[in-house]
Amino acid sequence: MNEKFSAQSTFAAWSQIFKHMKKNVWIFGTITGLIISSFMLYAAMECYTNPDMQTNDVVGYAGMIAVFSLIFVGIKNYRDKYNGGIITFGKAFKTGFYITFIASSMYVLVWLVDYYIFIPDFLDKYIPHVLKDATADGATQQELQEKTAEMAEFKEMYQNPFFVVLITYSEVFPVGLIIALVSALLLKRKSNDAKASITT
């Protein structure tokens, strides 16, 4: 009888933990996804409507890293609010991974809707930006020809929806995954560590 009660209690405890993790992941994944999708839509429309716009990959990725810092906040919130101040590296990384996946999937979905419904000729606007930036960076004529051929091949591949999904995921998912990994390393905490931080 005691063993049955213990098994039921353990199952109930794990169900509660999973419920809290799922809730935490959805909240922070959705918030992160909404923010990076909004930035993407703004940048895409600026590039689409403004031929003189200067693209800056460094600024773009810096902004993405800033937004994905919510992964750190999400893991910490789960650890401190729902998990008694302790968390293993594996659980912390899993939490960060799910947040990243939800946010990245929202990013991909928003782009697919925007691209296929509203701006199907986006690459016709985007490719001149790329070549213009290459020229501004001092590319030689041969380098410009190579870049032109590269972008033509990219445009051809972009006709495949699977490639569109894959390349769009690659823009954001690796960044989020790295931040999830670093966050898990920084936030992992054993029970003894939690007690020590409370007593100090």
Quick structural overview:
With 200 residues, the protein is mostly helical. Helices cover 86% and strands 0% of the residues.
Helices and strands, in order, run as HHHHHHHH
Shape: elongated
**Percentage of β-strand residues:** under 5%
* DSSP, total strands: 0
Averaged pLDDT: 86
Poorly predicted runs: none
Instruction: Compute the separation of the termini in Å.
Output: 42 Å
Largest sheet: none
**Number of spatially distinct domains:** 1
Helical content, roughly?
over 70%
Counting DSSP H or I runs of 4 or more residues, the number of helices is 8
Quaternary structure annotation:
single chain
Structural class: mainly alpha
Supply Rg.
Answer: 22 Å
Strand-helix topology:
Layout (H helix, E strand, L loop, with lengths): L1 H48 L7 H12 L1 H13 L6 H30 L3 H15 L4 H17 L3 H27 L3 H9 L1
What do these coordinates show?
It is a single chain. This protein is mostly helical and 200 residues long. The protein has one domain. The protein is 86% helix and 0% strand. The chain contains 8 helices and no strands.
Keywords:
200 residues; mainly alpha
